[in-house]
Hints:
It contains six helices and 24 strands. The chain is of the alpha+beta class and 356 residues long. Strand 18 and strand 19 form a beta hairpin. The termini are far apart.
Amino acid sequence: MNVQKYEIARVIDKLKSVVQKNDQFPALGGILVKNGYLIASNSEITMKVKLEASEGNHFIIPMKAFDLIKNLPDGEVDISSTDQNVVLIKTRGIKNKYQSYPPEEFIFDITEDPEAEGVQLNGKKIMEAIGHVIYAAADTATNAQMTGIYFEGTENKVSLAALDGHVIAVDSVPAEGAADMKLIVPKATAKKLVSMGVIDDVTLTYTKNSAIFKSEEYVIYHRLIQGEYFKYQKMFSESEITTYASRTDLIGAMTRAKMCTEEKRPAIFKLENEALNISITDKLADYQEQVPLQEAVCKPIRLGFDSKLVLETLKAFTCDNVVLGFTSPKTPMIVEAEDSDMKAMVLPVAIREERS
Length: 356
């Protein structure tokens, strides 16, 4: 195939993280060129990215060729394969060859229900929603459901939720005919979806064990996490104390406060009238900053939070201002977007009072 270097390098860059060494199926240690797509697969996920220049070709680009292709000079690259599965790469006086594998040995699975109509989603909106909640999913956990993003459908929208026991994040996107959807998508798969930069409309089809996200350029098949998800909606309750604040101001204050201590000390929030006083105190520092509130609180309240969780939560939002809700020093802070369905809950931590 004759292809521009930047095109083939871009596609390989999107797929290479899926490629893994597999002693049982060595051919999966490369990228398959087939039917106008480049394909990468492992035991959990299969990804296909369209590359029109590859139409009519059928061979495997081995992993060891990825870096060479990335570092070739700009211009047209000729990539082909011999009957002995030797891949040839040629461009501008550069010529190299790699021993590869028979393409027939590249085993991948895209199990699609032929009777499933699929749910149509706006690509940009669903990727934004995933980006809003993904930080709240655990990287590892004894409860596998915590390591996924939950997709729950109704007749007119799909809600997304993630939680790890300390923070919960929720968002939703419009969708028709998704009432039966209850999917737990692994966090690693969700990260790949976001990294693809999908902006075209997406069709989501699913079976009991797997789901497929399909756009004009991509096909992403993955296994689902099994089990029943948490009743996350019941964890949110109406706050007794609510106010508004600038998200940028809050992020700046929390960043500065966190920088002033290396110890795992809570950030103390003290809300009174139209001010939020943030403080972090340890053996060497006593940081204080006041953030103005856009609405006076109905009564003062003082509580502590993990600085990292608060920062991650605020950064996940994209609006200018956020609604802050509190009830007591022992109940979570509720953060809501001013312009969307996104909301999050951050659990407080105990404040250890210093003895004089």
